[in-house]
Specification:
about 150 residues; alpha+beta; three-stranded antiparallel β-sheet; 3 helices; elongated
C-alpha cells in the first residue's frame, strides 16, 4: 500500500502539467495522420500513425491500447489482420492475404481494398523499393503489381 501512494501522487502531478485543452481541435481525440503499407509476398505490414491528445496518450500509457482497437477495427474491417503492437503514436498490423501470386506472369497482384473511411496520407513500399509512393485522400488501397 505504501508503494502505491507515490505512484498515485506521480500520476496526479503529471495531470497538473497537462493543458486543459489537450487533444485535437473540437471533439476529435483520435486522428490518423498516415498509414504506411509494406508489401511482403501475399501479406503486408501496415503502420498506422495517429495523433492523440495529451490526456488520451496518458490513458494509453497507463491502461494500454485496448481503447484504440475499435477504431482500428472500424477502419480496417475489410482486411484480415493481426495486431502486432499498439502504442501512443502508432499501431502495427500484419495484414494477411492482401495480394495474390500469379504464376503465369510471375507477379504479385494487389487489388484495391476499401478502408472504413478516407485516409489523409498513405505511403506504399513495394518490395525492392527504397522510397515510398505517397497517396493523398484515399478511401481504398491502390491496385499494385510487384515482384518479390
Amino acid at each position: 500500500m505504501k508503494k502505491l501512494i507515490p505512484v498515485i501522487f506521480l500520476i496526479l502531478l503529471l495531470f497538473l502539467f497537462l493543458p486543459l485543452s489537450g487533444g485535437s481541435p473540437g471533439s476529435r481525440t483520435f486522428e490518423i495522420s498516415s498509414v504506411t503499407i509494406k508489401f511482403d509476398k501475399t501479406d503486408a505490414e501496415f503502420i498506422v500513425n495517429y495523433d492523440l491528445g495529451a490526456i488520451p496518450k496518458m490513458y494509453i500509457l497507463l491502461m494500454g491500447g485496448k481503447s484504440i482497437e475499435p477504431k482500428i477495427q472500424e477502419l480496417f474491417s475489410n482486411f484480415s489482420y493481426e495486431i502486432i503492437k499498439i502504442d501512443q503514436d502508432k499501431t502495427i498490423l500484419h495484414v494477411k492475404n492482401i495480394s495474390r501470386y500469379d504464376k503465369n506472369v510471375n507477379y504479385y497482384i494487389h487489388e484495391s481494398v476499401s478502408f472504413g473511411s478516407t485516409l489523409n496520407t498513405i505511403f506504399i513500399y513495394l518490395p525492392g523499393d527504397k522510397h515510398a509512393v505517397e497517396y493523398s485522400g484515399r478511401n481504398a488501397t491502390p491496385t499494385k503489381f510487384y515482384r518479390q
